[in-house]
Specification:
By secondary structure, this protein is of the alpha+beta class. Helices cover 36% and strands 25% of the residues.
Length: 463
């Protein structure tokens, strides 16, 4: 099966058009090829993309390994060996982490075919352009440039392109961490998790250093069954509907974390005085509650910001009944909660039980604890410096993301993992993440590659 996949991937290498050549960007050419390989998850089919990269690197004499966690679910690993420093010591390994799968795209919702990788008005369109074949292409190109230069590395550089991130990483990063840790062990990890955006009058580049935890749970209401023509007060569907509405509209209080405080302080420096003052008063003992009351209204439209200020719950699935004229004895809902550092899935479910009261079963579907890496490191400062070389006006800050990435598997192993897709987008372009008309500015593809390259050379002491 793998040999057949490799043959198919080689065809992609040889015949896929490189229409981006006019833009003089090898990373852009590579990215367009990757977008045209449909790795929608489900089913994933990442092996085809992994073998495409395998053949690309093999032509340069770089050894790679494609490990399938299941048929078609390929993960690619490659390594550039470090020779150590002049003093004879070796730097810890640096892992360039990416995922090859993408979320599905409905062509009927798009202005251009989602897997055509077309360029229009200076933007590259395609599913995965942003999440996250763009960064994967930058990492691959960085890897190739270091190899071609015969760069002297003081520590290993590992390239890992994983499967299944969009469905939780079970067939990808989690599988590799649990079964092949010796092949991917690293102290430092560069991954996705954030992206630069032009907003609030600044070029803001948040660097993801932490993630909220996941608490997926099922809420079940039970009542008396009966004929739909005779309403009863003990109706499970009605009870469930009231509870779901309560949870879906509930707003947990804002909570200060070290990462959030640093992020807000850095952003505040760039704002007008009264906004700066409001942010700095947000968590003060006396005036803080009043400030948070007014800020909550202002943030009602800023869902991404509000999502990292507190715990959140989103109802996502409902299940009840089997016939329109029968009142069911049971109704259930699935809900997606994200929790801040300091909370656990089990502890959060106790809060849910207190909110809905008696008469409901609350069961955990899937949970993970919040995870973070210290942002007060040389690695973080290297990333900041690399960004500012491409954008002198950039404002950088550590951030916590509401969603999860594969970084959590490495943080659990003690690695320092940071997330940044080095592109500068408009708010409209950011909306393409997991949405329709995903696209990125072509001019930032090479700038992003320069950032990744600079990070690796600086961290690993290449000369």
């Amino acid at each position: 099966m793998i040999m057949m996949k490799r043959a198919l991937a080689l065809i992609f290498v040889l015949i896929l058009p490189c229409a981006g050549a006019a833009d003089d960007s090898p990373t852009l050419d590579l990215l367009r090829d990757l977008i045209r390989i449909d790795t929608s998850n489900p089913p994933g089919n990442e092996t085809t993309a992994a073998e495409y990269v395998h053949n690309l690197l093999a032509r340069e004499g770089i050894a790679t390994e494609v490990i399938e966690s299941a048929p078609g679910r390929g993960n690619l690993i490659a390594r550039l060996k470090g020779e150590g420093t002049a003093e004879g010591s070796r730097k810890p390994s640096l892992l360039l982490l990416g995922h090859l799968d993408v979320v599905p795209a409905d062509p009927k919702e798009w202005g251009l075919p989602p897997f055509s990788a077309e360029i229009r008005d200076g933007e590259l369109w395609g599913r995965g352009a942003l999440d996250m074949k763009g960064l994967a292409a930058m990492e691959i190109e960085t890897f190739l440039r270091l190899h071609r230069e015969k760069a002297k590395l003081a520590g290993d550089v590992i390239l890992l392109l994983a499967a299944d991130e969009e469905a939780g990483g079970t067939m990808g990063a989690e599988f590799l961490v649990n079964n092949h840790w010796d092949k991917i062990e690293a102290k430092y990890v560069l991954n996705e998790g954030s992206v630069g955006v032009r907003k609030l009058g600044m070029d803001l580049f948040p660097i993801q250093v932490a993630e909220k935890g996941v608490t997926w749970f099922k809420l079940t209401a039970r009542g008396t069954s009966g004929h739909g023509s005779m309403p009863i007060s003990d109706n499970a569907v009605a009870k469930l509907a009231r509870a779901v509405d309560l949870l879906g509209t509930h707003r947990f209080p804002f909570e200060e974390t070290a990462v959030l405080k640093e992020f807000l302080n850095r952003v505040a420096e760039e704002l007008v005085w009264w906004k700066r003052l409001g942010i700095r008063l947000l968590f003060t003992p006396v005036i803080g509650p009043v400030t948070r009351y007014f800020v909550a209204g202002a943030l009602s439209e800023e869902k991404a910001v509000r999502a990292v200020l507190s715990h959140t719950i989103s109802p996502t699935m409902l299940e009840a009944g089997y016939k329109v004229n029968v009142i069911p004895a049971e109704a259930s809902a699935s809900l997606d909660a994200r929790i801040l550092p300091g909370e656990t899935p089990e502890g959060f479910l106790q809060k849910v039980r207190a909110l809905v009261g008696e008469g409901f079963d609350v069961t955990l579907i899937k949970g993970s604890i919040p995870n973070e890496s210290d942002f007060r490191t040389d690695f973080f400062r290297v990333i900041e410096d690399a960004v500012r070389k491409q954008d002198a006006e950039a404002v950088t800050a550590p951030m916590i993301s509401p969603g999860g990435t594969d970084s959590r598997f490495f943080r659990e192993k003690g690695a320092i993992a940071y997330g940044l897709i080095p592109l500068l987008l408009t708010p409209e372009q950011v909306e393409g993440l997991h949405g329709k008309n995903e696209r990125i500015p072509v001019e930032w593809v090479e700038k992003g590659t320069a950032i990744v390259y600079d990070i690796v050379k600086t961290m690993q002491g290449a000369q």
